[in-house]
Design a protein that fits this description.
Layout: H1 2-17, E1 35-36, E2 44-45, E3 53-57, H2 58-64, H3 69-73, E4 79-83, E5 91-95, E6 103-107, E7 110-111, E8 130-137, H4 141-144, E9 151-157, E10 162-170, E11 174-183, E12 190-202, E13 217-232, E14 235-250, E15 253-269, E16 274-291, E17 294-313, E18 317-332, E19 336-353, E20 356-367, E21 371-383, E22 388-399, H5 403-407, E23 424-438, E24 441-458, E25 465-484, E26 487-500, E27 505-506, E28 513-524, E29 527-536, E30 539-540, E31 546-547, E32 550-560, E33 565-572, E34 591-599
Parallel strand pairs: 6-9
Antiparallel strand pairs: 1-2, 3-8, 4-5, 6-7, 8-9, 10-11, 10-34, 11-12, 12-13, 13-14, 14-15, 15-16, 16-17, 17-18, 18-19, 19-20, 20-21, 21-22, 22-23, 23-24, 24-25, 25-26, 26-27, 26-28, 28-29, 29-32, 30-31, 32-33, 33-34
Length: 600
């Protein structure tokens, strides 16, 4: 308790001494909230949903000057981001204390995880190709099926309107260039974004690392996104595509990657009571890694399709029914070659009863390898008056084991997969309250508890993958947003107790306490400045090592030079804090970045 109070004092006290500023979320009215589609697969106001939801808009991304997704997501309540080394290093995202593969990642509706690890390769997705990020905390399996135990993060690729170009240079020989062009108001909207990044880097590991080599570990990434839409046969046809290719160096090794996805959707709003849509998508992911022990290559291919229909029932209720299916195949060179399919059917009912709103979801999944899984969710949302809102929800979720957990032969028999694994299953409860005393500020508080049964861990004989008994994760999330003329303030803190109840210890790499404070100030129409304060508490890592807490201070400034030109400056880790994100791995020292942009 003392350490948590001390951490809170650090998080709340230091920013008072740093009179530099940062941005707020771009919402017009806190009581209304943004429109989101990720929570229930249909357009809804976030303030009407019994869930804690965040939205990061394109303006927020541009204002943050974030060089990668790590810097964006780490500022969110309930989310921890861990990277082994510098840019391009393997990145893990933990939501509400659950495992990194317990977060369902969607890109324009495409399931983006690799079939081998069950996790998404966050490091290859450049913020320059992102239009919007929707984050839904808590289980969403009743809508999306497997993987959504901790929550869902959906990323929508960029949709530029006009022409934009930028060039940036940063510490560690970090160079980036972006070109984006589009016409969103045309009869047939079209757009294209291309961005490239090359980083000289620094040594990913230190003397404590298992394969330490004191050379610089670089990163190269070329990314593109495109899309458009057209009116066809009384409906709207839209398409989105994305691709990334490059390489990541690490101590005594190098990885080459190729990753692309394509999504096609057709929506028809009929004159009758039903509106429906059809979707199809494909994804390919390839990762080839060369080390002193040899070369490995893992390839994922996935095809998916969905059909959804919804209709109004009176003035205050809405019903949704749908089907989705996907088939994925995975190949690990010389190890395994597997495929499987999943068919899901789901339905939901949402509506309002006076000051209260409700949602009910049910889903049945039929996995080719693991049979049927029933999941569901129930939530209640009550707005007592314009100032107060409360909600409560319960949900059940599951995750099917990935191919490596099932079939990997391991390393000399160690860390092998287990074809007899059962799916992981969870139950979750959450309650939250919002207080909006005026148009300038808002408080939110959420409490949750998540029980995960049959958690998969490499802790059997010879470290084979097995189902352990249970993990229990309890947590609190507090946020405060404030606006005053030219000032904006966004503060959040997270307390959590992620426990492996079978082993009687913390789940690895998840801090019991973290907090963030972003303070922003607009000097005048052409100038704005900002600061970020990031505090992460101590956490358990492999080998029983407990890593120390750390606090980072980041600064940024933007100057609108002329009608078409902008100049930006960002400084990360201003105090040059030396810390380890993982045992044996280095984090960046003080880092400078300058960017020049043109728009027309």
């Amino acid at each position: 308790m003392y350490n948590n109070l001390k951490s809170l004092a650090i998080a709340a006290g230091i920013p008072l001494l740093v009179l530099s500023p940062g941005p707020a979320r771009s919402e017009t009215a806190w009581s209304d909230g943004p429109i989101v589609v990720t929570a229930n697969r249909t357009e809804q106001n976030a303030a009407s949903l019994p869930a804690r939801i965040s939205v990061i808009e394109r303006d927020d991304i541009a204002r943050s000057q974030a060089p990668d997704l790590l810097e964006l997501l780490r500022l969110e309540a309930g989310i921890e981001v861990v990277r082994n080394g510098g840019p391009g290093g393997q990145t893990s995202v933990f939501m509400r204390g659950s495992n990194s593969n317990h977060v369902l990642v969607l890109i324009d509706g495409v399931r983006a995880a690799a079939s081998g690890t069950g996790a998404f390769t966050w490091e290859i997705l450049d913020p320059a190709v992102i239009e919007r990020i929707e984050i839904v905390r808590g289980p969403r399996a009743a809508r999306w099926g497997s993987d959504a135990i901790g929550g869902v993060i959906q990323i929508f690729t960029r949709r530029p309107n006009g022409v934009f170009a930028s060039a940036a240079y940063a510490s560690d020989a970090d160079r980036q260039a972006t070109l984006a062009a589009g016409r969103q108001q045309a009869d047939i909207p079209l757009d294209l974004t291309i961005t490239g990044r090359k980083v000289g880097g620094f040594s990913a590991q230190n003397e404590r690392g298992f394969s330490f080599d004191p050379d610089d570990d670089g990163f190269e990434n070329l990314s593109a996104s495109t899309g458009g839409s057209a009116d066809i046969a009384g409906g709207a046809l839209s398409w989105r595509g994305r691709a990334a290719t490059g390489e990541t160096e690490f101590d005594q090794g190098i990885s080459d990657f190729d990753n692309w996805s394509w999504a096609l959707d057709y929506r028809r709003d009929t004159a009758g009571p039903w509106q429906w849509q059809l979707g199809a998508a494909t994804l390919r992911d390839r990762l080839e890694t060369e080390t002193a022990f040899g070369t490995s290559e893992v390839v994922t291919r996935r095809l998916q399709g969905n059909w959804l229909a919804e209709r109004r029932l009176g003035d205050a209720h809405n019903v949704l029914v749908g089907l989705d299916a996907w088939r994925e195949s995975g190949v690990s060179r010389g190890q395994w070659n597997e495929s499987r399919a999943n068919l899901g059917a789901f339905t939901g009912l949402e509506g309002g009863l006076g000051k209260a709103g409700y949602e009910l979801g049910l889903r049945l999944d039929d996995d080719e390898n693991f049979g049927t899984e029933f999941t569901g969710s129930l939530g209640l949302n009550v707005r007592f008056d314009p100032q107060w809102r409360a909600f409560a929800s319960a949900g059940r979720a599951f995750r099917a084991p990935n191919f490596s957990q099932l079939y990997s032969p391991g390393f000399g028999g160690l860390f092998a997969g287990n074809p007899d694994l059962d799916p992981e299953r969870s139950w979750s409860l959450e309650a939250g309250v919002d207080f909006t005393p005026g148009v300038r500020q808002k408080f939110t508080l959420s409490a949750y508890s998540n029980w995960i049964d049959d958690l998969i861990d490499f802790s059997g004989a010879d470290f084979q993958a097995i189902n352990i008994n249970e993990a229990r994760i309890r947590g609190l999330e507090l946020t405060h947003d404030y606006r005053l003329q030219r000032w904006t303030s966004n503060f959040n803190l997270t307390w959590q107790d992620p426990e492996d109840r079978d082993a009687g210890r913390d789940l690895l790499r998840r801090a019991g306490f973290k907090s963030n404070w972003m303070l922003g100030y607009r000097v005048h129409q052409r100038w704005n400045v900002g600061t970020e304060l990031v505090h992460v508490g101590d956490r358990l890592d492999v080998g029983g090592v407990r890593l120390s807490s750390y606090t980072l201070i980041n600064l940024r400034a933007a100057w609108h030079l002329r009608d078409h030109w902008d100049l930006e400056l960002r400084i990360d880790n201003l105090a040059d804090r030396d810390y380890q994100p993982l045992v044996g791995f280095n984090a960046a020292d003080r880092r400078f970045q300058v960017r020049l942009g043109w728009s027309g």
